[in-house]
Known about the structure:
binds magnesium ion, 14% strand, globular, alpha/beta
Amino acid sequence: MQLDALLAEIKDGVLPVHVGIIMDGNGRWAKSRGLPRLEGHRQGALAAERIVRFVAKENLFPYLTLFAFSTENWSRPKAEVEGIFRLLEEFLREKADELVESGVKLLVIGDHSRLPDGLREAIRELEERTSRNRGLTLAIALNFGGKWAILRAVRDLLRAARSVAFGPEEVREELFRAYLPTGELPDMDLLIRTGGRLRVSNFLLWELAYAELYFTDTLWPDFTEEDLLLALKDFQGRERSFGGVR
Ligand code: IPE
Ligand code: IPE
Ligand code: MG
């Protein structure tokens, strides 16, 4: 089917509000071509750029979270880790004006403290420059782990409980939810994972509670606008009952 026809069909149906993508398969993409892993990450950054531009332009859904680097990815060779951070900094600096102008609001969720200074600065600047934008909210999960996020929320809550003096019974779902790094995002409706692995790999945990899961063997650098539309079409065929009866 033509991309435009597919797009029109999908826009006619119920769309998710929050989509997350585990962008996996960069290394295998490079390996299969005899290229260094970092080249896979470079092509992966281009795929991310393509998808963000498409979602923003077509106004497909209001929240997109991309998993870029997990708390476990530090176990990779130092050169690969540094290369990924360099690519991310380049991406944020080169695309800054386009992101600001296209109405994207950037949030980087994850533990910033261990990131290189230049990258931290690029994040701070772009979060500030896009903070008043009202278009697509783009969250990049960077040095992010679902377990880290929940632990951080618990620690912050305990500190708040001590200083504002509230008791354990006041910690209800909405209150806890606000302490997560995704506090300003709704729970996830659709999780897409490329690269053929059938797991969550410590991505958002709480927010995934009722997400529809979509796995594809396509490696992330090969993921196109059409692949995204196919995932959305699949989502539109799901029956969501949230524990109830339908
Ligand atoms: C995902 O691609 C990108 C990051 C985790 C940073 P991988 O680098 O995990 O690619 P594969 O899974 O080795 O192919
Ligand atoms: C998940 O991919 C993390 C990101 C895409 C950033 P990994 O390649 O790190 O996950 P595992 O090791 O296959 O579970
Ligand atoms: Mg991987």
